[in-house]
């Protein structure tokens, strides 16, 4: 992954894929990625600890709404 510098401060959805890139393996939401310039992910990568793993894509809105509220209150 290589986030665009101007977008690193935004909430980001990262989808991990299988080798053929035809199936999503997991969904992760990062509050921001300003600590990252470039990184090759691997299975069980510790980098993913900085994200909220979604059990389902339907959880995306709730997680983003909560992150936005935390960001507004300055709690991260």
Q: Could you explain the architecture of this structure?
A:
This protein is of the alpha+beta class and 76 residues long. The mean pLDDT is 85. The protein has one helix at 60-73, and strands at 12-17, 24-30, 52-54. It has one domain. It has a three-stranded antiparallel sheet, covered by helices on one side. Helix content is 18%, strand content 21%. It is globular, with a radius of gyration of 13 Å. The two termini are 23 Å apart.
Task: Please write out the topology.
Blueprint: E1 12-17, E2 24-30, E3 52-54, H1 60-73
Antiparallel strand pairs: 1-2, 2-3
Strand content: 15-25%
Query: How many H/I helical runs?
Result: 1
Structural class: alpha+beta
Determine the N-to-C terminus distance: 23 Å
Shape designation = globular
Query: In what order do the strands lie side by side in the largest sheet?
Result: 1-2-3
Give the number of DSSP strands.
Answer: 3
Helix and strand element order: EEEH
How confident is the prediction overall: mean pLDDT? 85
**What oligomeric assembly is this protein in?**
single chain
How many domain regions? Answer: 1
Note the main sheet. Answer: 3 strands, antiparallel
Q: Which regions are unreliable across 5 or more consecutive residues at pLDDT < 50?
A: none
Proportion in helices: 10-25%
What is the gyration radius calculated from CA atoms?
A: 13 Å
